[in-house]
Amino acid sequence: MQSFLELAQQFETKFNVRHFPKQPQTLYDAAQYILAIGGKRVRPVCVLMGNELFADINQDAWQVAAAIELFHNFSLIHDDIMDKAPLRRGMQTVHAKYGDATALLAGDVMFAQAYDYLTRIDLSYVQKIIKLFNQTSKEVCEGQQIDMDFEQMQNVGMEQYIQMITLKTSVLLAASLQLGAILGGAGEGNQQHIYSFGKNLGIAFQIQDDYLDAFGDPEKFGKQIGGDILSNKKTFLLLHALEVATANQKKEIDTLISTNPTDKVEKMLTIYKDCKVDEWAKELKEKYYKTALKNLADIAVLAIRKKPLYELAIYLMERES
Amino acid sequence: MQSFLELAQQFETKFNVRHFPKQPQTLYDAAQYILAIGGKRVRPVCVLMGNELFADINQDAWQVAAAIELFHNFSLIHDDIMDKAPLRRGMQTVHAKYGDATALLAGDVMFAQAYDYLTRIDLSYVQKIIKLFNQTSKEVCEGQQIDMDFEQMQNVGMEQYIQMITLKTSVLLAASLQLGAILGGAGEGNQQHIYSFGKNLGIAFQIQDDYLDAFGDPEKFGKQIGGDILSNKKTFLLLHALEVATANQKKEIDTLISTNPTDKVEKMLTIYKDCKVDEWAKELKEKYYKTALKNLADIAVLAIRKKPLYELAIYLMERES
């Protein structure tokens, strides 16, 4: 059994090659650029960990892991175009550096290349693997669309929001683990448990993300505190505040959102604290985290095999940036 | 053996269903919208014809045909975003109607859905089919990128241009036929011949397209004559004119391109005719057309089986709009 970091290192070594031809250079340099920026490689390593929970790592798991990382980067490129984001992991986004059109195409070829890796695996599970991958990729697109739809809506309910977050971010984590489990020979029941583990962990992770953006330690948090508040992003925190705020507080929130005063972050955080949004978010995170741990416990393999996944969950939940 | 039109009708009936779930509506309505606009369905029918050249139509051919049509529409949506095109087949483009972000995503889910259909086919050729599909989809993206690169270049050689056209439009026609041939049980040699037939026919078709845009009969041609000239598009005609024009003619072409006078189309056509660009284009088209027919002749099946493909070639080459 190997830890997340051990597997991440091995994945990085194997993945750190050129995935595309040289020509046309404008296209493929753009595609390589985002891969070189890096990232924690959480999703591809989840493929490997999902596999190793049940059996030694199947050589095909490296192909599936690479496909997942390519898919993830494809969706980042396209999301950044849609969101007109200038920066990603502190670097210029692909469209900011290479233009919208090339970024769009670079995402497309990356998606095609992901399938290229998927079709290299053993015939016995190629259909099952690609089916789950397809379903997940459509769900990720749906999540992004629902997120954009929310921008136009006055009222977004908490359930709708959790559904959106699940599609936009959690299902990919969940599917990565299940894809690994399939390659490790897991039965249907165990596959469902590991999928649920990833899904609930993903939701808890997103709540943590929203929490840190508002209440994180500025010394440890890598980004500006209150970025979500400044950009009027609908987050778990804002939606809950709107649910529990008094009429006066609601009015103040609306004014802060529409007038963008210089002390917007400070004032919004005061309302959040008055509404106990911070405590609520911690509890909600705990709820999903505990469900995830229950899902992990339900998987029918020796507890010792679960150690790396358990440690990964702790690592993702206790991060401060 | 069925004709192109017979197969096109059957394809239309089977394809004319909703390919996506209802929700999120913004996303999937956009995806359905472009499919409903229609088109000649040349590529998916080529899958069916490529199959029927060698054997009765395999049920899987309908899945592959649907995948090809979804892929084609995915690439149209993304190309239209990149080209900022307001109209497609006389209707609003997807991004003009639904916004760039939704159009981008609608293309993405359509691409994923194409793979969904591909994975439903018999295991015995799923890898071979997806491999060719992947290679082709990457080539189509490359062609689009090279086309955009050309916009920034002063000098584009004829060979480079033919390479771009091959990638951007011909390989999909070629691959559609070969995919069908694989499903029909064709051997490697016959697969290569039918691929070459599609590739050369595609190039001839594009030359015809450029020719009609400049020299078509305004009564029969569905679009405005000279659209390519007005938009300074690098076409076969312009590239050849620049190759053979005198220094004075070259200067006049450059002036027309940079100053956009009201009589630009008329004046450019005069230069084209003085340079015999029309005759040259007809000859070039004939050259590729004849090579395509030679490729068709080389396929080792009874001549009578080739009749529908031969008629398709004539139909595509003799069109006036």
Strands, helices and their partners?
2 copies of one chain form a homodimer.
Chain A: H1 4-15, H2 25-37, H3 42-52, H4 60-83, E1 87-88, E2 91-92, H5 94-98, H6 100-118, H7 123-151, H8 158-183, H9 188-215, H10 227-230, H11 236-244, H12 247-259, H13 264-274, H14 277-298, H15 307-318
Antiparallel strand pairs in A: 1-2
Helix pairs in contact in A: 1-3, 2-6, 3-4, 3-8, 4-6, 4-7, 4-8, 7-8, 8-9, 9-14, 11-14, 12-13
Please state the average pLDDT score of chain A. 95
What assembly state would you assign to the polypeptide chains in this entry? homodimer
Q: Helix share of residues of chain A?
A: over 70%
Give the CATH architecture of the largest domain in chain A: Orthogonal Bundle
Biggest interface goes to:
A-B, 36 and 36 residues
And the CATH topology of the largest domain in chain A? Farnesyl Diphosphate Synthase
The name of the CATH superfamily of the largest domain in chain A reads: Farnesyl Diphosphate Synthase
CATH class of the largest domain in chain A: Mainly Alpha
